[in-house]
Each structure stands twice: as structure tokens, then as C-alpha cells.
Amino acid sequence: xxxxxxxxxxxxxxxxxxxxxxxxxxxxxxxxxxxxxxxxxxxxxxxxxxxxxxxxxxxxxxxxxxxxxxxxxxxxxxxxxxxxxxxxxxxxxxxxxxxxxxxxxxxxxxxxxxxxxxxxxxxxxxxxxxxxxxxxxxxxxxxxxxxxxxxxxxxxxxxxxxxxxxxxxxxxxxxxxxxxxxxxxxxxxxxxxxxxxxxxxxxxxxxxxxxxxxxxxxxxxxxxxxxxxxxxxxxxxxxxxxxxxxxxxxxxxxxxxxxxxxxxxxxxxxxxxxxxxxxxxxxxxxxxxxxxxxxxxxxxxxxxxxxxxxxxxxxxxxxxxxxxxxxxxxxxxxxxxxxxxxxxxxxxxxxxxxxxxxxxxxxxxxxxxxxxxxxxxxxxxxxxxxxxxxxxxxxxxxxxxxxxxxxxxxxxxxxxxxxxxxxxxxxxxxxxxxxxxxxxxxxxxxxxxxxxxxxxxxxxxxxxxxxxxxxxxxxxxxxxxxxxxxxxxxxxxxxxxxxxxxxxxxxxxxxxxxxxxxxxxxxxxxxxxxxxxxxxxxxxxxxxxxxxxxxxxxxxxxxxxxxxxxxxxxxxxxxxxxxxxxxxxxxxxxxxxxxxxxxxxxxxxxxxxxxxxxxxxxxxxxxxxxxxxxxxxxxxxxxxxxxxxxxxxxxxxxxxxxxxxxxxxxxxxxxxxxxxxxxxxxxxxxxxxxxxxxxxxxxxxxxxxxxxxxxxxxxxxxxxxxxxxxxxxxxxxxxxxxxxxxxxxxxxxxxxxxxxxxxxxxxxxxxxxxxxxxxxxxxxxxxxxxxxxxxxxxxxxxxxxxxxxxxxxxxxxxxxxxxxxxxxxxxxxxxxxxxxxxxxxxxxxxxxxxxxxxxxxxxxxxxxxxxxxxxx
Length: 872
Known about the structure:
Blueprint: H1 2-17, E1 25-28, H2 30-38, H3 47-62, E2 75-81, E3 91-95, H4 99-109, H5 112-130, H6 135-149, H7 159-177, H8 185-199, H9 203-212, E4 220-226, E5 237-242, E6 254-259, H10 263-268, E7 274-275, H11 277-282, H12 284-301, E8 305-312, E9 315-323, H13 328-340, H14 346-352, H15 355-360, E10 365-366, E11 376-377, E12 379-382, E13 385-391, H16 394-402, E14 407-411, H17 419-424, E15 427-430, H18 438-446, E16 450-452, E17 458-460, E18 465-468, E19 471-474, E20 478-482, E21 487-490, E22 495-496, H19 505-517, E23 521-525, H20 529-537, E24 543-547, H21 548-552, H22 558-566, H23 570-594, E25 599-603, H24 616-629, H25 633-649, H26 661-666, H27 668-687, E26 693-698, H28 704-725, E27 732-737, H29 740-744, H30 746-749, E28 755-758, H31 760-768, H32 772-778, H33 780-785, H34 802-816, E29 821-824, H35 832-841, E30 845-848, H36 853-870
Helix pairs in contact: 4-5, 5-7, 6-7, 13-14, 13-19, 14-19, 19-36, 20-23, 22-23, 23-27, 24-25, 27-28, 35-36
């Protein structure tokens, strides 16, 4: 019932049903939160009456009473959405305390220090969370109290130190709000529930949901539970543990324990924790009981669980269970191990590993041969190595990151307000905290390298620097972090690429199983033989896009290309093209050879010709300099000739100008040369018994007449080369669908085209009327924030517009040519959600960068698994 109760409420309910010791409580559903927002931020009718009735039941079950001085009931008020959002929403602990109940709690527990500490925590949390008071005001007062007492940690504060601190906290509250702290527990409860509802729509929660693609309309549940206390002395404590290691996947209890502490102390990272094994040493019977519950919950949910617990004077309480966030390494290892343990099936294993988790295995790591000495070492929390400029606040990280700078966010500890900076950073480093701290959980979810608990560094936020081992690193200076080893280095340290996934035992198994389930083939975009090698290494079944113009950019051939463009007659142009022919033939031979036995789609030249000529502004500047100095007249004359040609080729809107099929029609000699090079390469390889399978793509077609014109021009070249070489080569002519008109007239175009390949980048630009570069620079982010667009259409295919055009093209094209080969070669080919759409539309393949082929294989399998599940 996660939809209704949220993950936390559903987990608490399930543990209660299983007979585990869960503190008594009740859950206000996500439905109530949605009603709260639909009524303009007010409690819906009946909610408060139901809440007070549930509170009476809670009093009866616990034998305690809300606001009673002799036997007070204190509660926690926690959020809990359907999907885990670590630290994104608000929590209030120790609710129900006032002067009378604090005295009662002291008498009941015979521990005045405990009651005072609980009170100062409550005032601080209520003030910050419910009233929005700057948390630093409370922290500043707490630090001052510890300085005056001559202690380093909170538990060392004695009653004589805590009494004035509580009074100081009450003064801070009154100064900030203009009124006294509310003493009525019922008033406190209503305000706390309201605050938790409001926390669903904080900036940090919305940012996290946008990154994790969690819908905004789900709402959060509110869990009200009797408080249990981990800060009642040495036989009390609190912890967070995972049923398996969330970093490596090894089958062991893994996590953090903190004696004489409340749960917030662990997740906030304000105190250094001990490993969970410390509980076994301190309280062996409690550890044995907890270990039994952990095994039982993992077996019940058939997944790794993230557990929160509290020990109160030797008694264990289970607070939460949820599916654990894990690294890519852990995800694949755990999935494969659980299959071998017969806990889950292969299909479940493939469905469970997220594509981005698989991507994490491709992260680089610090080169062991670099002989770099770490400046400091912390707890490895999320794998991969990253280099960037140190920054010390989230706003700067976000600003610099958006400017294209690589940054490492360095903090004492992170909190939910830092999420926007964490999203833009290349890595995260914190001075305190453990493997279950906010920084660790969020970084693992984002796939960012992260080190926590680096206690040997000292972060000075005011000076915007950190120091370690006598060295100070200031903001803007480069550091390297390795989230796999926990090492921190000064400067940029060489890294090495991860091993191929095919050689990773668990990842290799997941991908082999994925291949059993998927229907879509996965091809790769590759412009050079080295790309083709990587593509095959990652399991590509063909090349969906080879961009010939990229080959022209190489240093040794650019002068020939420029001379060809400068030519004013066909004969002059063909002289230069004759020089390019053997170069292009060699390029194609290399790619076709590497992909022997698999199809290779080669796109004929596409971008505007002026892109190959010198920059216009730079030409003007150089000409002006030569004129001013009156030197090198020959160079001046040459530059003026080039400028005139650049002027002539200049277009107001090059994206919609002389490119693609239009270039082939105006300058057919260029594409005739390219087709000859393709076919000569294929024939040469065939003679060597190498199975070359070229497919020739004519780009940017909008009408059948355009395609027919070029096809008629080029087909004779294909036949002529085969005749000259005495070899027959299987080949196809097709087109790229990237103009809406082509999609709408696909039935006609399929009379000439033997395959379609969707160029979804240009199809998105021409469908929306957006220039991608300008849109992403100026307004896409704002559109996403305001929900004018649900997703960036250049990252995930716009299903209602671009997707609809694709559907028309597939349907109409296959009416004309039933066995029409249809694929996608835009950047969307590596996006999991876009791959799901391609599966539903019945495409033959998706093509993406060689690097993303494994991710696409997994996503294609998950699309097929989801499809089969939905039809049952």
C-alpha cells in the first residue's frame, strides 16, 4: 500500500504485521496530502477529527497521555512518500514536550540530563522545520555552550549546561517568530503535520523529484509514532543498517551505529559513527535480534533493505524498512547473487538493475600507476573518480557547474538544501558523516563519486577552504576524489577507464540475461574504426549512424575539403574530391572490417559547407590586421578570396539551409564520390572474404521527389563499382526521418527507401520549432521548472509530438514496405525512457554512442519485460 501509506508507513505496517517491535503510531495518507494542496494548503474536512481520534487510540495503546506531566506521550512526526527521497522532506522528533512534560519525563526516567537534551532538540527541530528559523542560529548557540563547558560532543553537556541552552533556544524562537514557543502539544502536532505536508513542495524536494523523475502529484504520507529514545545512556543507541553492503553488494550487515544518540545524529552526519558491528560488541543480544529481523525482511521483500532502528535501554525498536539505495557495483552483484540464491528470477534481476546503475560501472578510477599520494582519506560512499575545483556551498556549485566548470562540492556535511549543488557537482566530499549520511545516500542515487567522514580534513566555510596535513586548499583550486577508495588528492590525478562490462562477472551476466528478454536490437553510432571496436566490445549489433562529415574534420584532410569548397566549377571540385576518395575509402574499409557480418549505416554528408571554412569573424580580424600593416599581400589576397566564399555560403538559418539531401542535389559530385568510396571499400573487403554490409543513408529528406532525384543519381555509381570490382555486395538505400513532412508522407517515401532511421534531434527541433542550443541555453530549464514541459525533449523523446510522428512514419512506411527496417540514431537512442517508446512503436533497433550500448541493452530488455507484464 505504498501508494496510500507511503514507503515509510507501508514498511512500518508490514513490520508490525510480522510481529516485530515497532513503536505504536498511525499514518495520515498521501490522499490527505493531495487534498491539502487541492484546498489551497488547508487541512481537508474531517482530517483533524480523524487525527485526534487516532491520537486517542495511540494514548490507549501506549498507556501514556499527550501533555500529561506524570506520564507524557511524546511522538515523532515524519514524512514518507511512495518513493524514497532521503532527507528531502521534514521530520520533527520529541513532539509533546513543554515545561511540565519535560519535568515529568525527567522524573519518570530519573534522568534530568536526558529530559533537557530532548527538549533542546525538540525546540531546535520545531523552530527550524516548522517555523523556518535559520538552523545556524541554534547551532551557533550549541557550539558556544560546548565551548563554555569545555567539551567537544553533545552528550558531554551536563544539566547545568543544558538548562541555559534550552532557555537560549526559547529566546531564539521568540526573537525569530515574535511569539512564545507553543506549550500545547495538540497545537504542536497540528503545526508539525502542516509542515510535513508543506515539505513535499520545498525547492529541494522538487529538485530531487525532477532528477529522480518522481511525479509531483503523489504527495507524502505523515507518520505519527510514539517516541523511543536512543539517547538514554550507554545501553541505548540508534543506527541505520543495510542487509547487504550497498557499495560492493557483499552479503553482510553494513551500516552505522551511534551509542547514546537519536536517529538524526546518524543521518545528519554531525557525529562520527561506529560500524554496525559495534552494536554486536556493546549489546550482543540486541544485535542477534536485529540480525534475525534483517534476514527476515530481506527474504520477505526479496530485496536489500535499508533499516532504521533505535535501542532504548537495551530494548530494540524497528523504525523503518525500505528498499536500499545502492551503487551500480552493488546493484549488479546483488541481483546476480539473489538469482543464485533462488530468491529472485533472472527476469526480476534484469528488471531491478537501473540503467544508470549499470552506467556507473563505466566510471573511471584513479590510476594506481600515477604514484599520487593522498592528501586525506575518508569513507568511500559512491564509486568513481572525479576532478574539479573545490567549492564550499551549493549555490556556487550550481552556478559554476552550469557554466561548464567541473566542481567538487566540499562540506562539513550536506543537508537537503544542498541538493541543487550536488546535482551540478562532479563529486562530493564531506568532513563528517557515515555511509548512511545524507551525502552518501543522495550521491549514490545520483551516481556521483562521493567520500564522507573524511575526519582528517578541516573545512572552514567562512574562509572557503579546507586543510589537511598542514596543507590548505582554497576555493577554485583543483582536487581529485576517488569514491571507490576514499582517497582525496591535491590537483588533477590521472584516471583509468573502467574495465569493459563484458569482463565484469555480474554485469556480464545481467547483460546476457537482458539479451534473452529484449526484442529491440542495439546498434551504435560510430565515425571511426576505434568507435566500432568499442561498439562491438559493448555488444552492438550494427552501426546505426556513421557521420561522414566528421571524417572531413581530420587535420590531414581539412585543407582538401576547404579547397573543394572553394572551387567555383564542377571540374575543380572533382579534382579535390579525387584526392578525398582514397581517404574516405580507407575510413569505410576500417569501419566495415571491424563490423564484419553486421550492418553499417553510412550517412552521406550533412552539415552546411561553410562549417568547414575558417571562422568569419577571425577572417575579418586577420584581413584588417594585414591591411593595417601593409604586409604579406599574397596572404591578404588569399584571405579576401576565402572571405568572399564564406560570405557566399553564409546562411541566415543554416540548420534549415543548404545541407543534407539539398547539398546532394546541388553538388551531386560530392555524394557520388562518397558512394564510390563506400562501395569500393565494401568490394575490397568482400574479395578478402570479409562480410561487409553497407547501408547508405540520404539525410534530411522532406519529399519523395528529393529522395528519388538523389537515389537515381547514386544507384548507377553503386552498380558501376560492383561491375568494375567483379563483386556483388548486399546493400540498401534509405533515409533519415528528421523532417515532420517526411514522417507524415512516410508511405510515399517508403516506395524508394529500403530503411528509415529517425534522427530525433533534428526531428525534435523541427517539430517544436526550437533550436536546441538556444533552447537549452535560454529557456528549457525555466520551462521545466514551470512545468510548461514535463521533460527536456532533447533528452527524452516527446511522446505526444515527436513520438506521434514516429508512430505515423512506422505505420505508413510498413503499409508500403511490410519488412521496412526502422531504427533510431539520435542521442535519444541511449535514453531508457525513449527506448521504451521505440519498443512500443515496433522499431527494429536503437542506435546510441558505443559507451551507452550496455545501458541500451538493459533498457530494451526492461521495455520487453514491462510489455509482457502489462499484457498479462
